[in-house]
Amino acid sequence: MQNLERKALVIKLSSLAVTNESGAIAHHQLANILADIVQLAKDHKITPVLVSSGAINIGRAILGEASDNMAYLQACAAVGQARLMQAYEQKFSKYNLQVAQILLTHEDLRNKQRSLNIKNTLNELISAGIIPIINENDSVSFDEISFGDNDQLSAMICELVAAPMLVMLTKTNGLFNADPSEPDAQRFESIAYDEALDQIKTLTKTITGKGGMKTKLAAVRKLTPLGVDVVISTYLGKYPVSNAISGKMGTYFFSNPQPNALKKRSWILTRAREHAWLNIDKGAYDALKRNASLLPIGMKSVRGPFNRGDSIPIKYQRKVVAYGIAEYNSREAAQICQTAGNDLPSKLKQVHAKVMVHKDNLILKQD
């Protein structure tokens, strides 16, 4: 376990950690979690940074009549976020602690200047002893600028504030080799940095959340190469965060003990989109392993949406083999699949580059 003394600790709270399924604030449970966080901060001189879900679930209870319509969900987020922050403010005020609300979209952290401004704001809040409460800005977010889930947002925040650890609190007490409801299911207490995850059962998401175990594992695989430990544990029990950090509960993912090489490109890794990717052929894959750029001619297909400048996973035979910054958006990328560099002007009105991902903006995934 890493030494957290005088460092930021990012804690991601799922929807059901702060609300019940009907959308009401789970006051007793949330108070219990926050009491544990406050005591940890006092004992270990850490600064908590919270990434909190729950706004949409709260808003649904207020607006009524459930719908998957984007405008409805954004309205739920707008209404619910106010109630969510009110709950945090009231509970932290009992400890004479102030909170600050920060709402973000993927676009905010993709843009390097805006990302730097957010980093400076967070550092200023942390220096002032104010606890940041971070959430996706669901009221304005849509597919192209959304994180997809707060698991990915929490990974980006870890990189932004140089946190040594991420604690993800969910209903399930860590990861299991089968459905946790099965009597023979076994919990993984810890997983080494280079251990394969093939034997882990990735469960479906809850009815109130965007993510699930699969998105949490994606966040793990972004952070552990950078030297950030991750714990996936339950929000249930009296000391949920303390028990997670100490290894008493949940699954502890140990990070790479020598992360310096990848830290130089951590921006690419942590900001990679989860629901968009490029599929490449064997020739392109072999070229990437020789430290070459990804050319359009080596792309077989495109999954979007994404914008130019986004960090995108690159897949070969359905497995992510690399991450890189796209020179073209998803619509343009689909147009130039299997196109030679000299033929790009015949497919596009504007040719930004002869490559889809330049080698200097590309990271091969470590097996």
Q: Explain this structure to me?
A:
The structure is a single chain. With 367 residues, this protein is of the alpha/beta class. The chain folds into two domains: 8-266, 3-Layer(aba) Sandwich (Carbamate kinase), CATH 3.40.1160.10; 276-364, Archaeosine Trna-guanine Transglycosylase, Chain: A, domain 4. 35% of the residues lie in helices and 18% in strands. The protein contains 13 helices and 13 strands. It has helices spanning 15-18, 27-44, 55-63, 70-93, 106-110, 112-127, 150-161, 213-223, 240-246, 260-263, 266-270, 282-289, 330-335; strands spanning 8-13, 47-52, 99-104, 131-136, 165-170, 190-191, 229-234, 251-253, 277-280, 299-303, 311-316, 319-325, 362-364. The protein has an eight-stranded mixed β-sheet with strand order 3-4-2-1-5-7-8-6, with helices on both faces. A five-stranded mixed β-sheet has the order 10-9-11-12-13. β11 and β12 (319-325) form a beta hairpin. α3 (55-63) crosses α4 and α7 runs parallel beside α8 (213-223). The relative contact order is 0.11.
